[in-house]
Amino acid sequence: xxxxxxxxxxxxxxxxxxxxxxxxxxxxxxxxxxxxxxxxxxxxxxxxxxxxxxxxxxxxxxxxxxxxxxxxxxxxxxxxxxxxxxxxxxxxxxxxxxxxxxxxxxxxxxxxxxxxxxxxxxxxxxxxxxxxxxxxxxxxxxxxxxxxxxxxxxxxxxxxxxxxxxxxxxxxxxxxxxxxxxxxxxxxxxxxxxxxxxxxxxxxxxxxxxxxxxxxxxxxxxxxxxxxxxxxxxxxxxxxxxxxxxxxxxxxxxxxxxxxxxxxxxxxxxxxxxxxxxxxxxxxxxxxxxxxxxxxxxxxxxxxxxxxxxxxxxxxxxxxxxxxxxxxxxxxxxxxxxxxxxxx
Length: 344
Description:
The structure is a single chain. The chain is mainly α. Helices cover 54% and strands 7% of the residues. It has helices at residues 3-8, 28-35, 37-44, 63-79, 97-106, 111-115, 118-127, 134-148, 162-178, 224-232, 250-263, 267-273, 278-306, 308-337; strands spanning 14-19, 46-51, 88-91, 154-157, 187-190. The strands form two sheets. It has a three-stranded parallel sheet. The chain has a two-stranded parallel ribbon with strand order 4-5. Strand 4 (154-157), helix 9 (162-178) and strand 5 (187-190) form a beta-alpha-beta unit. The chain starts with a helix and ends in a 7-residue tail after the last helix.
């Protein structure tokens, strides 16, 4: 559906979501946990999906690796089913209004209010306040600007993002009250949980890039044979019964969650199918399911990375669509706070 058609049909509610490119590849934890639900949002909403490249600068990074990571992230979003005709996909830094609105919001945010935000509190508690940058301190305010710039109705969030959305709503209300009603208050769109995807080697912890060892995490761009091997080597228990019981059988329960998420089959059906068959069959079949799932995703991502012109075109069109809306919001904000408009 083209942008023009969207404009002439009844306006669909706008949703906005961003992702940080923290690794070279999506993994099952973030993909099955939240990312793939973005694809369904395209049916009923007008989505804006951005790669939060400015947010990555709050900690030291290798510029060359970082640049490559952003490009890989964009390719994977398209490979997983984000359609550039229906969704704007763009890099945050390609829309300068993000940083411009952030400054206005920073001037509305109390120092104590920013200091209470979880991320800054956690990092400064661990490493001392001196180790945290001003960027990390102001990060939630940039996140509020990311959202408010598009005046979306919904923001897809996991439970861990609720605090940031609360700050966003507080700042929107404060701006509306001090100046003039400018921002509708964005509502959380709570992503339906697939169930937490846990580390394959340590099912007491969630699968994550920072805490999982190589054997505990399934990277979607890995060679599918490697992923299959990780499934077959996943920790289970000394029994043989394929049964969902998170407390007593966390490893098997995690594999059932993954199997169900990839196939759409109910966990009860899977328990029934593998009754009396033991872990070998179960893990072997799941390994095949994983290979069938990641192979086309990986191929499509690699094709996109080899055709940089197509990828760059998608990002350019995405940022143009984003700027159409972002520039109007920023013009309203600048006008209401009393800045003089530029006359050309």
